[in-house]
Amino acid sequence: VFEERRALLGKWFDKWTDGQRRRILLDLLERCSLSQQKFCAKHLQDRVPIEAVDFTTRLPRVLSLYIFSFLDPRSLCRCAQVSWHWKYLSELDQLWMLKCLRFGWLINFCPTPFEQGVWKNHFIETVKELRLGAAKTPSKDEFIVIDVQPVKSKVPERKHPLAAQGTSRGKKEIPPWRSSDRNPTDTVRYNYLDNEHPIEQARQ
After folding, report:
1. Which residues are within 8 A (CB) of 54 and not within 5 positions of it... i.e. 6 or more apart?
2. Which pTM value belongs to this model?
3. pLDDT tens for residues 37-62?
4. pLDDT tens column, 187-196
5. What is the fold, at CATH topology level, of the domain defined by 55-132?
6. Which positions fall inside the F-box domain (predicted)?
7. Separation of alpha carbons 125 and 131, rounded Å
């Protein structure tokens, strides 16, 4: 009897529209117990894997803080703008205290367990006191371009014995960085006339 009614229910389900199928599924899920709903959720997760899941909601908080500890202060501030949960994690004292102690920046009081973000505020205020600014590009007059000339040695050059043997035989040996082709086509000629201005090149 169960198999006959199961087959009959399957035939009815095939003839129903999408809206009718959803209503029947909701009714069946409401009639199921908690263990049966967990069974359905497990099979649905196997068939339809969850995508784009926030790893901070799946991993323990210790592992999430360990991942966030590799970020620099600017990246942590950007993570605080993702969601409320990320804002809570990225402002914990466990992250910012290590960054302050790395530079020897200490606080002169002991925060209570209910105070969060104390070390982050201390880091921001200390950086403000340093008054760090962007590097300024000096003017053209401050650049000094020195005319470099090759230094000539007073010691007479000695001819290599292998080179002398080659000239005696009448054969000119090819350097190892050149191929046998006298007119190579795969080389890039560096044109000194196309060089940029030394000041503009230093700015880049």
Report:
1. 83, 85
2. 0.43
3. 999 988 888 887 777 778 888 888 89
4. 544 443 444 5
5. Monooxygenase (1.20.1280)
6. 53-99
7. 10
